[in-house]
Amino acid sequence: MSLQLTPVQTVECCSPLAREPLSESEAAGIVPLLKALGDPVRLRLMSLVASHEGGEACVCDLNDAFELSQPTISHHLKVLHEAGLLEREKRGVWVYYRARPDALSGLAALIGGQGQ
């Protein structure tokens, strides 16, 4: 039985792109993170959550930034959560999202070429 790494774990264990080439399995493991960020709405959502006061945002705080329905915003947030980029916590009827610093720093180190 082989151990399956999450996309965030894969990024954390990879050397920066400029240091050595990714293996085929490392590249495949990182793709879900990059695909999640590859959509303009999700990239903006990630930025809005990460930069929001207190480092977290409620879905109710994010709806006005887009001309999209609340279910569509929630779907995009779910994709970011499932990729490992956001943590979420339900409080009453609302869900609050927080960026995962390990995922963001891992991606930055991978792409930026800085050692971890």
Task: Give a description of the structure.
With 116 residues, the protein is of the alpha+beta class. It has one domain: Winged helix-like DNA-binding domain superfamily/Winged helix DNA-binding domain (Arc Repressor Mutant, subunit A, Orthogonal Bundle). 53% of the residues lie in helices and 13% in strands. The protein has six helices and three strands. The protein has a three-stranded antiparallel beta sheet with strand order 1-3-2. The radius of gyration is 15 Å and the shape is elongated. The mean pLDDT is 82.
Radius of gyration: 15 Å
Average pLDDT across residues? 82
Assign the CATH class.
Mainly Alpha
Strand order of the largest sheet: 1-3-2
Q: What's the count of strands?
A: 3
Share of helix among residues? 40-55%
Q: Treating each run of at least 4 consecutive H or I residues as one helix, how many helices?
A: 6
CATH superfamily: Winged helix-like DNA-binding domain superfamily/Winged helix DNA-binding domain
What is the distance, rounded to the nearest whole angstrom, between the alpha carbons of the first and last residues?
A: 29 Å
